[in-house]
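User: Modeling request: complex.
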Amino acid sequence: MSTWELFTSGFSVLMDPYTFLMVVFAIVVGTIFGALPGVSATMAVALGLPFTYSMAPVPAIVFLVAVYCSSITGGSITAILFKIPGVPSSAPTTFDGYPMAQRGEAGKALGIALGSSAIGGLVSALAMLTLSPQLTQAALSFSPSDIFAITFMGLSILTCLDSKNILRTLISGLLGLLLACVGQDPMYAVQRLTFGSGELIAGLEMIPVLIGIFAVTEVLKQTKKRETFKGEEGTASVNTKMPSFKEWWGIKWLLARCSVIGTVIGILPGAGATIASFLCYSTETKLSKHPEKFGTGIIDGVAASETANNAATGGAMVPLLSLGIPGGNAAAVMMSALVLKGVQLGPLLLVNQPEYLSATFASMVITNILMVVVAIGIAKVFAQILAVPYSYLGPIIIMLAIIGAYATNMSIADVKIMAIAGVIGLIISACHFNSAALILGLVLGVICEGNFSRAYTINRADVIGMFSRPVAGSLMVISILLLVWPVVSSLFKKKEA
Amino acid sequence: MFELICNILLWLGLLYAYFFNVLEAPIPDRTARNPYTLKPDVWPKAIIILLLICIAVNIINIIRKNRNNPEFHLDALMCIRSRLVIGIALVVAASFILEPLGYMATCCLVLFFYGLLLGQTHVIRLAIFSVLVTIVLYVVFSVLLSVNLPRGTIPELRNFSLYVESIVASAKSAIGM
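Assistant: Request completed. Predicted assembly structure:
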């Protein structure tokens, strides 16, 4: 079947009114699930599974893909409005989205998040349809040392996140890397840094830590601000004005870069949307003419993170459909649903059952377009919550944080970790450390160590040999230059002054 | 001063972890003998060494900057009395009472007391708000998303949760959900 035939047959599937309605329903459900803290994209897809039991295989995959894509986008809504990342991949969105909402630009931040999500999703869907086999082969040729080099490149942002506080940012990043070591080591499952606690053996769960450091810390900071306050007030004026065409045009290259990077990262097994959004945020910080503005509430930061995490959704579908290898947890849930329906995922899918690839593509395209309209409606409802007095809103955020942390694994220990993370976030802020750097270290730490260990063993302890591959070698050189440059340039500036 | 104390405590904590907590179980013999594997303690120890150096430099920087600063002191009494400390205590307490009291009691208490802490003066309105939000969150997470919210271990509260769940279950079966 040619690409054009795949293209047209996919859309003909969606012309069926029942399938189309299911996609719209999936978008609403997925966006709301994604916006709720503690409900990850994987959980959203899993919650969507029962709806597919009575469906035919093609509408089932169309439905699940729509839930998956829209849940990733939904995560940005609470990230921007309440600093609660609905899904872990929305964590970098809080860096700029929340300051924008605090300035009363919630509408613009949400508009950028939804629009850039759609662009990222569309680009990755197109890549999935046209380059699926080639992209999969390229991604599978990546060795552990290449993946380590990619994640190390993500860490190279550390010296750039706060150019005035390089040392403290570096400490924060290293603390994040150390926290990622808590639990069992990735190669031999030897217990480390658990301080005798059985609850830490499995390591620190990402969602409770993210919710604690972002949401709980923010409520505690607001509590301190209201030290002398009595009575009621709304937190911020809500302006739902959307971004202008000029603003979109200004970030066109950013959108293109993040779409490509996000798609490629999405294809890599074990990487996924979270790594993609952090990596794109760091890349854009490095490439920006005004890196110091990142984190203060600019549209570039929101667009980088959201384009990348949605581009990764299409990327994750590539190895699933063409090789039968799920790129991430959500893809694994989808795979189990399709296998139940008798779909043979893998290289023969395109030959025997090409309608699945074309239906997935069409679903992604339609979802990413309709999602903007649906999610704007949902986001506007959520945005009105900002006008609620903080004495009501603050406690609700605390309770959402508690439920969100608990719902991840139905574990009380995760709630305790969330509360401790909230207090640690406050201390980090008081000590002028950088919570974004800490989260970056925590997210990338596990992948970094795991791939470094594997590469070390494969290369028989030859560290130089590990980076003799062209991809790994060149990425490491670039990363080291990026890591060192801000330090060197600040030293030069000091000398000149 | 607070920053300095935190940095010193962090430095000491890391030093302790370096010697006593990096490895909490013996390395398997096969791993220990294999010269081509990265031992499980190498990566965290390398990070801790880097951290110890960076934090030491940070401590020196803080002391240097504040050498002649007359306001460089810690008002312990002010810290303890602050609303922030009560907020921290409430959040930490909520995480600990969730298991014995269950979701419903914890949610009501957190919403009510944190609302008071944030300056809400209408006590009755706040109490009604706490109960309503508890119900809304219960419906969203427990009824619609099937999240098994904690029932509590105190018999009375647990029985109340089970009673609510039985009402929800019969309502669900009545509407064919």
